[in-house]
Specification:
Layout lengths: L16 E4 L11 H9 L7 E4 L1 H16 L9 H9 L21 H10 L9 H6 L69
Antiparallel strand pairs: 1-2
Helix pairs in contact: 2-4
Length: about 200
C-alpha cells in the first residue's frame, strides 16, 4: 500500500496540535470540530488550533463502514450528513450515542472501540487509549513494520484493479440533489455559503 495526496497535510506542533484556517475532508469522514470551523471562520478569519484526534474520528467512521458497508451519517444530501455529524460537536449539550444497524453482528469489543472514536472530541480516545484497547490485544505496535500483513493480494500487474469492486459512478452524490430535511440556517449554523468545501478530499 502506498499513501498519496499529501497536498493538504499539516505538520503537527510539538504538543501534537496543528493550526488550520480552512478545513478539508471528505463529507462522510470529517470530524465535527473541523466542521465547526466552517461556521466560525466567516465571523473571524483567525486560525483554529486542533489536534490529531480528528483523525481518530475518521478512523472510527472507516471501522464502522468496514463492518456495515456504509458510513453512519451518510445521506444523499451533504447538508444532512454534515448536520448529523455536528450533533457530536462539543457545543451540543445533548450527548449523542452512536447507533448500530440491528441486522449487523458486531462484537461488544468493537462497539466499545467505535463508541470511543465516534464521539465528542472532549470524550474521544487518545492514541494511547486506542493502542491499549482490548480490540487490539493481539497487535504488537512496536514491530508492525516487520510483520507480514494478514492479507496479501495477488496482482497480475502494477495496474491490476481486480481486487476492487466496480463503482457505480451514476450514483454520485450532489449537494443539490434534493431539498434538505433540516432548516439549514437553524441547524449548527451551516449554510450553502460553505459549499466550496463540500466533497473536497
Amino acid at each position: 500500500m502506498k499513501l498519496a495526496d499529501f497536498g493538504s497535510s499539516l505538520a503537527l506542533n510539538e504538543d501534537g496540535s496543528f493550526i488550520s484556517i480552512q478545513p478539508v475532508g471528505t463529507p462522510d469522514y470529517i470530524a465535527p470540530e473541523l466542521l465547526q470551523i466552517l461556521s466560525t471562520q466567516k465571523k473571524s478569519q483567525t486560525s483554529h488550533k486542533l489536534d490529531s484526534s480528528c483523525d481518530y474520528w475518521s478512523m472510527g467512521i472507516i471501522g464502522f463502514e468496514m463492518i456495515t458497508e456504509k458510513t453512519p451519517f451518510h445521506s444523499d444530501n451533504v447538508y444532512d450528513t454534515y448536520s448529523e455529524i455536528q450533533k457530536y460537536s462539543d457545543k451540543e449539550r445533548i450527548m449523542q450515542v452512536l447507533e448500530f444497524p440491528s441486522d449487523v453482528r458486531m462484537s461488544r469489543c468493537l462497539k466499545d472501540l467505535l463508541h470511543g472514536l465516534i464521539t465528542k472530541s472532549s470524550r474521544r480516545m487518545t492514541i494511547e487509549e486506542i493502542k491499549d484497547h482490548s480490540f487490539f490485544n493481539e497487535i504488537n505496535w512496536y514491530s508492525l513494520r516487520e510483520q507480514a500483513p494478514p492479507i496479501i493480494p495477488t496482482l497480475s500487474s502494477e495496474d491490476d484493479t481486480s481486487n476492487f469492486e466496480d463503482v457505480d459512478k451514476s450514483k454520485k452524490r450532489s449537494p443539490v440533489l434534493k431539498k434538505s430535511t433540516f432548516p439549514i440556517k437553524n441547524v449548527n449554523e451551516f449554510s450553502g455559503d460553505d459549499l466550496p468545501f463540500l466533497g473536497y478530499t
